[in-house]
């Protein structure tokens, strides 16, 4: 059952930061969820943190203070097995165009969905579990986004719903940092293939990789994903927040993000847009893109073999 784990204040960690592991999943409320298909959620207390950094001169990642409310985040990236089980359920329950997943194996992260596909899949997972969906096609939030292109923005999101959704960019970075402040990666200022599945390069000073390229390249053909949970988690117990697959966030990309306000509370990004934020880097990206503050801009209708998703929910 639920187990609580409290992190002590050590070095750069937030005082009193904590997380709780809970399991969700299973359409039968009386049945225990299967560990290979259930979404395991980590309960995060939220709080204030400095989003972005000035360590590497990225002009679209300037530091600013943000506050996020408590939320839960999936311990792992969505796997191929999880995606396909929800996709098959969805096709029988009003989600006719959810695509089949792509992945190296059922326990590897699923890749190759558009941002709109990810949005609809989150809704399908919510309805499968009897939860209230977060995404709609109208500003009154009456028509659930189930099919077609998800041409939606902040007005079409029920932020108070208890269903699954993509993390906001702020939630994602808060979770990725795992309580660390002023560091490049979930593991600290340096990274190696002990920490993440990314494209190693001897030309990046803070990359202490064991070899050039991806560590998974020795074992397979592209895309060089690894099974979820293959590398060390961060201090919040979240896996693959750096590398493996980059992850869709909810926010539309804004190169001039941030605010003149002292603290931004639960930012959701621009109200509308075409390009969406992708975070975390992947098997094909170097350490620079695996940094907690690194931001990539992707057309929302463009699937890629290096982009997947991770879900979040309110507590």
Automatic annotation (TrEMBL):
Pfam families: FGE-sulfatase. InterPro entries: CTDL_fold, Sulfatase_Mod_Factor_Kinase, SUMF_dom, SUMF_sf. GO terms for molecular function: formylglycine-generating oxidase activity. Residues 41-312 form the Sulfatase-modifying factor enzyme-like domain. This is Formylglycine-generating enzyme required for sulfatase activity. It comes from Prosthecobacter vanneervenii.
């Amino acid at each position: 059952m639920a187990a609580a784990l409290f992190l002590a204040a050590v070095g750069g960690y937030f005082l009193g930061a904590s997380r709780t592991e809970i399991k969700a999943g299973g359409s039968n409320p009386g049945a225990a969820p299967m560990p290979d298909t259930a979404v395991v959620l980590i309960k995060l207390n939220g709080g204030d943190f400095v989003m972005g950094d000035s360590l590497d001169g990225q002009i679209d990642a300037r530091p600013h203070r943000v506050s996020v409310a408590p939320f839960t985040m999936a311990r792992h990236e969505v796997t191929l097995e999880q995606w396909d089980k929800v996709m098959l359920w969805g096709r029988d329950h009003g989600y006719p165009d959810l695509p089949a997943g792509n992945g190296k194996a059922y326990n590897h992260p699923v890749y190759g969905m558009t941002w709109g596909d990810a949005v609809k899949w989150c809704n399908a997972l919510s309805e499968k579990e009897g939860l209230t969906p977060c995404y709609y096609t109208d500003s009154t939030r009456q028509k659930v986004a189930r099919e077609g292109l998800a041409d939606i923005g902040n007005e079409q999101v029920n932020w108070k719903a208890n269903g699954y959704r993509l993390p906001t960019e702020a939630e994602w970075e808060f979770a990725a940092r795992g309580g660390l402040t002023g560091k490049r990666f979930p593991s600290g200022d340096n990274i190696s293939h002990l920490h993440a599945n990314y494209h190693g390069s001897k030309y990046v000073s803070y990359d202490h990789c064991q070899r050039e390229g991806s560590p998974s390249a020795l074992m397979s053909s592209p895309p060089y994903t690894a099974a979820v949970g293959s590398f060390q988690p961060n201090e919040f117990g979240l896996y693959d927040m750096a590398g493996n697959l980059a992850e869709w966030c909810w926010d539309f990309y804004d190169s001039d993000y941030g605010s003149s306000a002292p603290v931004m509370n639960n930012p959701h990004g621009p109200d509308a847009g075409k390009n969406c934020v992708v975070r975390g880097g992947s098997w094909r990206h170097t350490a620079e893109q695996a940094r907690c503050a690194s931001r990539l801009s992707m057309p929302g209708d463009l699937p890629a073999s290096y982009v997947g998703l991770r879900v979040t929910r309110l507590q």
